[in-house]
Design a protein that fits this description.
heterodimer, A: 311 residues, mainly alpha, B: 376 residues, cell membrane (chain B), transmembrane (chain B), MetI-like_sf (chain B), membrane (chain B)
Chain lengths: 311, 376
């Protein structure tokens, strides 16, 4: 994780070392927790798969199988109730490499399709959210009327009607990327609008007085003070927004049967009882989410460094 | 107390446009003037001019200006809706008079909202009127636009159709609500939030656990957890337990992250004071640190509440008994009963806003001491 809200004293290179040391201090606990999770996963797989495994062994003529026999059988099911981590890993690797990218049965094809609609919705939502925030900052009276509705807009469970939005837009002739991007946009604009509004209002009064003493115009105050001040708030929201956009894209893929996307993959897996495929798609989605959040964090470091902010 | 001509003109603008609309044909097959197509609505429209004129005549500082302009907009809206209801404007036959009246109402509403928002913060009108007026304006534009310009109901039904579908389908919607919100979402929410808080308190006690859990929790908070819905349906069957399971996993991590953030919100001085009283870890936790964590806990509870509702509905797309909001949405879309779908969305929105409002009210009662709550 990039930002735990820790501001370290010192400057430049020394601070980087300190930050690296701080991060490495987390490695042992994180690995321990991860190992624990995997151990529980294997245990759960054994518990959940053993009834099925015993039944199969009985059918093969082994009336009272030993524990080790059940164990081997439970960890090697073709359609397990809970696939083991190694089965999921093998599934991810084979489904990404067996066929060329672009093939419908390749996992990467689906991941790329989902990433595309996520990014499209993210860009649209960010533009909308920033426009709303800047508009409300420029026209203060509007804020009191508009802000409650921005909050209320999020009580409409867009994810729940995502299939409908996709179906209706499909009937109108909008297919492919756009409907999914619209859903992602709806989920994205909210955190961006709220965070940016807060950020634009958080300029230090001392700095405002300084700008005033320079006789700065409202536009100059906005560009040179308010906007740079709002960047940390904006990026914190962008990390939330891009994760939300991914969820929106995945749910938006559910009704578009047979098209590409991780959501399609999940639904197909649940129809045909391909548990390993579901888990592979799920892990792929989580990895994609982590990568997207990290990408935003990288842009944040560059942007805030450029604007002379202190990280 | 003189006012510029521009300011007076802006107050009057809505009224002027309404008057202009009265001189134009109401429908696209109309006979030249609004009055010929619909007499009574035209009378209401004329009445709307009175508050506009009254607002423009008042001095700069008058607090009545904003409300008066809003009343004028409301009367204009009533007149146009009446023209729809009496059948003077059939589906999709809006003429220039109708369109101009609609634009006038929206402009007047915007002006009224801006005026009211400038009133001092303390007055109840300044807090409640702007959002209420904006909501009504949006509803009006939706209704008048859908019927006047003939938007296909499959695409977007007008609010009146959604309202009647809501009233007609109340028993069914109630059963769906019980199944999805009361059984699935609420139970999962309670279990998930409790587990998240307990896990947070435990992780706070053991530094090693915190260092290991926090990055994992942050990662999981961003992960698309809705994806586990098909797996949970396989494990727990079609009924509400599978939905509750998805909700538990969805709400657990945001709650854990917020609990940990909240428990570190107590200042050094407060901790030193507790130490000087000889308080142990548990006493300090209960007396100082948990109360200080309340704003963060409520933040987590609010976020989790919306997440829980959505997770429960989406989980129903992967398999349900023949009741539930997710089931209703997916089946009625297939049958092209879009008004029922929107009625279900209305139920979800009401449930979501209601929960959010309830949590906010409890938060205000419990954290009245927090800077963010002062001056309310």
């Amino acid at each position: 994780m990039t930002d735990l809200g820790i501001t370290l004293p010192g400057t430049g290179r020394r601070r980087l070392w300190r930050a690296a040391a701080d991060r490495s201090a987390n490695i042992v606990p994180v690995l321990t927790v991860a190992a624990l999770v995997i151990a529980i996963w294997y245990l759960g797989a054994f518990i959940l798969n053993s009834p099925q495994a015993i039944e199969q062994l009985n059918r093969q003529g082994i009336a009272s199988p030993t524990t080790s026999q059940v164990l081997t059988e439970a960890f090697g099911q073709r359609r397990p109730v809970l696939p083991t981590p190694d089965q999921v890993l093998v599934e991810i690797v084979t489904s990404s490499t067996e066929r060329p990218v672009g093939n419908v049965r390749n996992l990467l094809t689906h991941a790329i399709a989902t990433a595309q609609s996520t990014l499209a919705g993210f860009v649209l939502g960010t533009i909308l959210g920033m426009t709303l925030a800047i508009g409300m900052a420029a026209l203060r009276p509007l804020e009191r009327g508009v802000l409650p509705w921005i909050v209320a807009s999020q009580t409409v469970p867009i994810l729940a009607i995502a299939p409908m939005v996709v179906v209706v837009l499909g009937n109108l002739g909008f297919t492919g990327l756009l409907p999914k991007a619209v859903i992602s946009m709806y989920l994205c604009f909210f955190p961006v609008a709220i965070g940016m509004t807060k950020g634009l209002r958080s300029a230090d009064p001392l700095h405002m007085d300084l700008m005033h003493s320079y006789d700065a115009s409202p536009l100059q105050v906005f560009l040179k003070l308010r906007l740079p001040t709002s960047l940390p708030y904006l990026f914190a929201s962008l990390k939330v927004a891009i994760a939300a956009a991914l969820v929106g894209a995945i749910v938006g893929e559910l009704p578009t049967g047979g098209q590409a996307g991780l959501g399609t993959r999940l639904l197909a897996g649940s129809y045909y009882g391909q548990t390993t495929q579901i888990w592979a798609a799920l892990i792929a989605a989580s990895v994609l989410s982590a990568l997207l959040v990290q990408a935003v964090a990288l842009v944040e470091r560059i942007a805030i460094g450029r604007s002379g902010g202190v990280r | 107390m003189t006012r510029s001509l521009v300011s007076r003109g802006l107050d009057l603008a809505g009224g002027g446009l309404l008057l202009a609309a009265l001189l134009l044909p109401l429908t696209d097959t109309g006979r030249g003037m609004w009055v010929m197509d619909a007499g009574l609505p035209a009378g209401v429209m004329l009445l709307a001019l009175i508050p506009f004129i009254s607002a423009a005549r008042r001095p700069q500082g008058s607090t009545a200006r904003g409300p008066l302009v809003l009343v004028g907009a409301l009367l204009g809206a009533v007149a146009t809706i009446a023209a729809l209801r009496t059948g003077a404007v059939a589906f999709g036959t809006a003429g220039p008079g109708f369109t101009l009246a609609g634009i006038a109402v929206m402009l007047a509403a915007t002006r009224g909202i801006t005026l009211v928002a400038r009133l001092p913060e303390a007055s109840a009108a300044a807090r409640i009127l702007p959002p209420a007026a904006l909501g009504l304006t949006l509803l009006y534009a939706w209704e008048a636009g859908c019927i006047g310009f003939g938007v296909p109901p499959v695409l977007l039904p007008p609010p009146s159709a959604i309202g009647s579908a809501f009233v007609d389908g109340l028993p069914v919607l109630w059963a769906d609500f019980i199944q999805t919100v009361w059984k699935g979402a609420l139970r999962g929410y309670l279990i998930g939030c409790t587990a998240g808080i307990l896990l947070g308190v435990a992780a706070d006690r053991v530094a090693f656990l915190r260092r290991g859990l926090l990055p994992v929790a942050n990662l999981m908070s961003a992960a698309p957890i809705v994806g586990i819905a098909p797996i949970m349906v396989m494990w727990f069957g079609f009924d509400w337990p599978s939905k509750a399971a998805v909700v538990v996993v969805t709400t657990l991590f945001p709650m854990l992250v917020n609990t940990l953030a909240g428990l570190s919100a107590t200042t050094r001085q407060e901790l030193d004071l507790m130490r000087s009283y000889g308080a142990g870890h548990l006493t300090t936790l209960i007396v100082a640190r948990l109360p200080n964590a309340l704003p963060f806990l409520f933040n987590g509870l609010k976020i989790s509440a919306t997440l829980a509702l959505i997770a429960a509905i989406v989980a129903e797309f992967f398999g349900t008994p023949v009741v539930g909001m997710g089931f209703r949405i997916s089946t009625e879309v297939a049958r092209m009963n879009v008004d029922v779908v929107w009625a279900t969305i209305l139920v979800a929105a009401l449930a979501g806003s209601g929960t959010y409002g309830l949590l906010s009210a409890i938060e205000r009662r419990l954290t009245f001491w927090h800077p963010a709550m002062r001056g309310r």
